[in-house]
Amino acid sequence: MPSFRTHITTSSCLGVVYGAVGIAMNVPITSAVIGGGLCSLAGMLPDLDSDSGVPVREITNVAAAVTPILMLDRFAAMGLGHEQMIVAAGGVYLVMRFGVARVFKNYTVHRGMWHSVPAACIAAILGFMICSCHSLPLQWYKAGAVFLGFMSHLVLDELNSFETKNGRLRIKRSFGTALKLWGRKPWANVSTYSKLALVLLLAFGDHMYFRSFVNHNRDRIRTASEFLGGFHGRVNHDEHDADNEGAEKQDSPQIKTRETLLRR
Ligand SMILES: [Zn+2]
How would DSSP label each residue in 159-184? Predict the structure, then answer.
């Protein structure tokens, strides 16, 4: 079995390439960086089905910390205020940190159906939902990053099934347990493909809901970047004022809008 370090190194290298390809295709640099980071992290995800060890704790902690941050755009688009965002992010963290970790610990077996192509699709679709934002192509880009990172793990696991002994190629018993479309247990297959169908439906429904919500609340919407941009804009504006006493005190309409948003 390839080590944790091998997996994370491979997915990180792929993440760098994925980010660079994104930039070459005119993806905003911040989104390309997020895409690369997601690819890197997704390379660890399949081993969530291991029952113990540092990697599992590491993966759970990182996923729990990163998910609420990735959901900031969604929270902002839902019109949540600053404090409501903090509460929502805290809730997501707790669910990920304790709920999801427990589900994996109790209901998966190592190299079961969580090490499979349909599981990679499930992870990518969940990534698609978590990264809801104003741009559908960017959402697909980030979901693709999760898929690529996840698949890199499966391919590495599968390549590790081959070894040479006394100059002869030998295939280990683990061959076919990682990069698979279905496993040996019929019920696990039914369960996995049902979950894939369910997350697909959820993603479609969520996308439609998110679109209509955004369209109906256009005037109240600010993205997380606008929020942060507004904060920095306000700070710079204050510094500028302090440096220029007696200067024009009239705020620009843009700053006024940002201030209104920040007070909410
Ligand atoms: Zn693995």
Answer: HTTEEEETTEEEE-TTTTSSS-SS-S
Domain regions of the chain by residue span: 4-163+171-219, 222-263
> From ligand 1's centre to the CA of 178, what distance in Å?
7
0.85 exceeded by pTM: no
Calculate mean pLDDT across residues 101-121: 89
CA–centroid distance, 115 to ligand 1, in Å, is 7
CA atoms within 13 A on the CB side of 247: 10
DSSP classification of residue 47: G
Q: What is the C-alpha separation between 130 and 124, in angstroms, rounded?
A: 10
Distance from the alpha carbon of residue 206 to the mean position of ligand 1, in angstroms = 30
Report the alpha-carbon distance of residue 214 to residue 208 in Å, rounded.
10
166 vs 249, which has greater pLDDT?
A: 166
Residue 14 pLDDT class (50, 70, 90 cuts): very high
